[in-house]
Amino acid sequence: MIKLGHLKSFMVCFAPLSAVFLLVVSLLAWEGSLVREKVISDDQRYALEKSISVLRERIDIVVSDLLILSESQQVDAVISGTANLHQLADEFAIFSLRRGIYDQIRFLDLEGKEVVRVNYGSGIPFAVPQRELQDKSDRPYFRLAENAPRGTIYISGVDLNEEFGQIEKPIKPVIRLSAPVFDKFGERHGVVVLNMRAAPIFADVVQALQLDDAEPFVLDDDGGWILGGEEGENWSEDLTGKAIKIGDRLPQAWESMQLGLQSFRVDSGFYSVQRLDVSDLLLARNSLRSLSVIYGSDEEKSSRLNLYVGARLPVDVLDKLLWPERGTLIIVSLAFLFLIAIGSAAYAWTRQNQIVASFDARLSEQVLRASKNSVVVADQEGTILKVNPGFTAMTGYLPNEAVGKPLSFLRAQRENAEALDEILMSARANGIWEGEVRNRRKGGDFFYSNVVISAITDPTTSEVNFVEMGLDISRHMENAQELWRQANHDALTGLPNRLLFEDRLEVACGHAENEGHSVALLYIDLDGFKPVNDRYGHEIGDQVLRKVGERIKNTIRQGDTVARLGGDEFAVIADDVKGRDEAEWVAQKIAASVQRPIEIDALSITVGASIGLAIFPQDCKETVALLGLADEKMYQQKRVRKSKSSDLVSASR
Fold first, then answer.
1. Superfamily of domain 366-478
2. Has 568 been annotated as catalytic?
């Protein structure tokens, strides 16, 4: 029970410490806010640089596409008369379909008239009929490119596509690029024009800027909204004739952009922005090319050549991003105040800790008794001090039969007993050891146990006790071994199946390569086995296969492997053979063994064996190819044998 004096002492300690701490927290909150804002700024700048990199890569691809089209073989073929305009239109359509970003690809002749135009409509490029082709001689992309030297491109500002003098709906922001076309003799023949759809490019650019719920935007050089404005603001000058600019709604942000600031915070939020000069954008990606660029014209809006790309974090979003730091400081403050309160009640806490410790000891004892797993407590020498009922149920030893004996008395083998010291040393060094051991029950039978040994140090005496927890996994081990056997052995003959055979072949060839000896692979196919099945049935055929498998196994050496690959096909791995002669001798022994009559009930059945032989590494150094080679040689021998005898199966009753 806390008395009045305890409460007074509590307040004397609590009040000044709390005041000092809250002052420190306030300073940390201010500093943490600055650090977090710096992190947000760096993240936004990285996202902005990433988006600009995307834009530069796209423009580099478009410039490359334009030069490729202006110098393509198909254009040369049309100019030289070896190809027609339909073929050129097909090439433009395929190119447009693969790229997916060009609204139009056009070829203009020297008079500025469209010779070929491919439109990209609804995801399907198509050639515009000849009657709908237009005269583009007054357009800047023709006038400025028609007399330009080879290796020159023209690039316009971004604007909305027009058809017959009207803005196309829905709106299609485009950037037009053109390049002159020359034949192989250097004579000028026209201009290739690309209408690049700006919308998907802008979408890729702003996608990287959508970080932490930021609002990306694209502005022209005068601050007009191209992307990211509110309803009615984007492309307002083109669509309504009245320009709505960022300075009309966000004057502080626009003023900071004009000053060249790239990261700044104003009343409307936090901004990361960069002004993109189209000349720098192109030259940065084409510095290694001999490339001349014409930028826009007097008739075009020059403000659409240079753009502002950026993102804004609104004030409410920014506050949410800064809030986790403030929340952490609040939690720390509450935790510290809680610790002060705990310190003021030290005696009560100590007493409570003693009660809890006593309860934990009783709880641990109850858990020990209730556990169905084996639990053994031993001293630092490994002598058993205590066991639980689960130990008795698992091993058959009563507590008085186990206490005082070393842990090793349970181990089934001398090696396991001798390894106990190493196990205890490992548990002492690492705090815990886990593994599987083979133990012996009181009745003498063996069992496998999954054992976890924990080393617990007494802080008062520095003595170490060991707690061994064991789980009987004998059934699990037996099931695992049986599953492995079933997965790797043939159900009929009990021999290794193809899977295990191929694994052993890999191992044998690996050893042979390392040790410098040879491995013989014998591929065996029974001759005359099908008539046995047809005449006497599959039951007799199965008995024949089992007998053949036993004979082959009894013929080869103990360390060799025989497997049934399927049907009436067998294979043998003869390891460490002295040469081809020894391998052929093994094959002859197997063939002779197989050909002996097989007695089943009153039947005497004879089958033969065609054997293909391949030797590693003399014949082949790859196991798959080695198996294929042996198979091929087996079929060669079978064809030879069939030509000499039409029936290798005989049975008498």
1. PAS domain (3.30.450.20)
2. yes
